[in-house]
Amino acid sequence: MNVYDTSFMIRELSRLNYEETTILENSDLVIVNTCTIRDKAEQKAFSFLGRLSRMKKKKPELIIGVGGCVAQQEGKKVLKRAPLVDIVFGTHAVGRLSKLVQQFEFTRRPIVDVKMATEIIENQFEEENIPIEGFTEEAVTGFVTIMRGCDNYCTYCVVPYVRGRETSRRPENIVSEIKSLVKKGLREVTLLGQNVNSYGLKGGKCSFPELLQKINNIDGLQRIRFATSHPKDLSDELIFALRDLEKLCNHMHLPVQSGSNNILEKMNRKYSRELYLKKVDKLRTACPDIAITTDIITGFPGETESDFQQTLDLIKTVEFDSLFGFIYSDRPNAIATDFSDKISEKEKKNRLNQILDLQKKYSKKKNMAMIGKTELILVEGLSKMQKKGDMRNGSKDFQWSGRTSTNKIVNFVMEECSSCNNNIKGKMVEVIIEKAFSHSLWGKTKENENLYHCVKGEKDNAA
Ligand code: SAH
Ligand code: SF4
Questions:
Q1: What is the CB < 6 Å shell around ligand 2?
Q2: For the whole model, what pTM was predicted?
Q3: CA 459 to CA 463: how far, in whole Å?
Q4: What CATH number matches the domain at 121-368, 1.20.140.10, 3.20.20.70, 1.50.10.20, 3.80.30.20?
């Protein structure tokens, strides 16, 4: 979500003729877009601000802005902890960023704008006609936010306090933004929301599956992904959409957080272990090869050894394709911060390592099962190894990287092609999987596939 918000900020600032740079020392203005979901993220933000302050001592004209959830949470306090910061703007002030920067350029006095909208508004992103031209990156894959905020109040979570109430964007605005990005080369979109399953329910817009249908109809777009689905709201309609819409990828990120009913209740997740497992079954019945991934928190207050064992057991039962594990941390305003029975840091870490070790086995198993299969890959660009110039065996073949529909990274080689210079970024290519690692796969393009990128690839692009 922060990646999307950052791209929005870049577009906003293009109104003032600011341009993105990759060289920090060259910049006239630095915006730090912060995250506060866990304590560590917040600490990282302040340590980076320390580095910027040292830069500013040598270059006093540098403007430093702090946006995102730490800005929203801390407001004026950011200026106390990092006195050389010039602009603090909250999560609802992003649409006012160019005005704030202009005001600072004029007055050179610190500005704090953390006003939050108190009612459901068509958020500030909609009506202001943001210049898409300011979006310079010509990426094959990208994010588009379809809703903001959250009304679920999971007891560990800071999001409702820093992002505000749940609001869905209008479907026509989402569709038109994606169409503009497709014109600039986007082939795969990931739709973002804290709980996409409740998209449109407030305010009488269309439902999430209906929105997916509209996006599925966009010419030139090849793939659609989304995150995140709250298990309590995963509907049959969405499961049927996953089965039936050809552009919708075969992957569901379904955060379970814990395998113990006792902990799920204390987390206020509003589903049981049994309901979660039932939804996983339904998904696999409708889409047998679907990849299912999850988030798990270890060491939530009061989590006993027996609760934790139930989480390990759930991982064994579901056999996730991969998971993100997090050590529980107290967050400002979150209800669980006041819970007693906190678990020691050492035990939280120990439990995290246990779930990661267990999961490694299943990730490898799922990846191994793909060896020998032919997969359709959307090519995102040269592989990291190729970029570093580290070519295997001194070969002149090109190494590319992309993902399967199930979101697995595949690196593959393709012989040099004199007709098209191997310009396959953004194209769909069939790859035979030859090797499996824990986090990626390795393969080669199918025989005679050299023709694919010159002939079929061009046809795809023209479509
Ligand atoms: N809206 C999404 C989650 C967004 S936050 C959902 O409900 O699934 C991403 C992940 O961060 C969560 O799934 C959770 O696993 C983790 N997380 C959130 N708050 C946390 C906290 N206080 N400590 C540790 N992990 C946390
Ligand atoms: Fe946080 Fe729960 Fe909302 Fe996700 S659904 S953002 S975990 S409150």
A1: 150, 152-154, 157, 159-160, 194-195, 230
A2: 0.91
A3: 6
A4: 3.80.30.20
